[in-house]
Design goal:
alpha/beta; single chain; about 20% strand; six-stranded mixed sheet
Amino acid sequence: MFADRAKIYIRSGKGGDGHVSFRRELYVPDGGPDGGDGGRGGDVIFEVDEGMNTLTDYRHKRKYAAQDGQEGGKRNCHGKSGSDLTLKVPEGTVIKDAASGKVIADMSAGNKRQVVLKGGRGGIGNQHFATATMQVPKYAKPGQPAQELEVLLELKVIADVGLVGFPNVGKSTLLSRVTNAQPKIANYHFTTLSPNLGVVDLDGDGFVIADIPGLIEGASEGVGLGLDFLRHIERTKVIIHMVDAASVEGRDPIADIYAINKELEAYNMEVARRPQVIAANKIDAIWDTEHDPIEKLRKEFEPKGIDVIPISAVSGQGLKELMYHVKGILDTMDHSTTVFEQEFFPEDLFIQENLPYTVEKSTEEERTYIVEGPRIEKMLGYTNLDSEKGFAFFQRFLKDTGILADLEQAGIEEGDTVRMYGLSFEYMR
């Protein structure tokens, strides 16, 4: 069974706790603290595997966790960092937050590897807490907790052209004639149970076409198999509407086009607005020359800007004209892959947590403000400020938590310094 959707639980590694210990050596009766730091927890990483084309692996196992960091040891020994967990997915997989449905990552268009959950930072040992007045600190810092999330994996095939139409109109036959794909062909409804991809080669230049199965009336509401496969049309730039122009099964091709367009509109209006071409198939089976169905289709749809091209998928008549016509439309469009932008940032979970923090003016340094507290510590532990995304999250965190407003209320001015656990930056409005 083709698997293009899976829901899984993922968890990063917890940071190892810092250790509390003291030097115990011969002739050193009052040895100082020597507790080591805990190791960092492992990240959860998604990576594209070119050899995969389904999400079947995630149907059998639903829970995945990276390794926890090791606790620090005696004699300043650092705990071992936990191993990262790398989950392989096919190209075109979109990772979403299961609760909100918002996009976390789109594994396409060059995005081959992405860290989705960061492991917790290891706690520091008691050696770091020794001061002139506190020479035997009996406490250490615990490691930061793991991040956990339920995510939805959806495979959206990467194709330039989507081939849609009711069952038995000849989509699989067309795909087998114009590409290197070898779909199973039989005279049954829903014979095609997975999207078939093929490459159309036009004198060394071509495009990728996908046969989108299962579209019938009510598909956008889950009738038949339509809802399972409509997501595969979201990346396509052009839609080929295939109809049985000869009405071999007694269907009205004009009514079929309107019915499927209605389903596309119900599912995604943006997809429904994309350029369309009507492939009027089975012209070799048209016997009623008095009421030409091709002419009826043209009168109905060409005034709407939709071209009608008569073809016979069986004999090959008109297929070359259809493919070059579609290529001409694609040549006028942006060639880049449609990418779904990130809408959900796992780090945002920290913004929602109501942990305390403080904003104070420094008594030791002029024009300097200190921001501290568990909320700040936790955020910094998971955020990579050297990356563009990490720094963007940091700026959003300061604004959404009200820290910037608190700084302004404390009297901060442009050019003043803000310090957060070793991090310093100049305040700019």
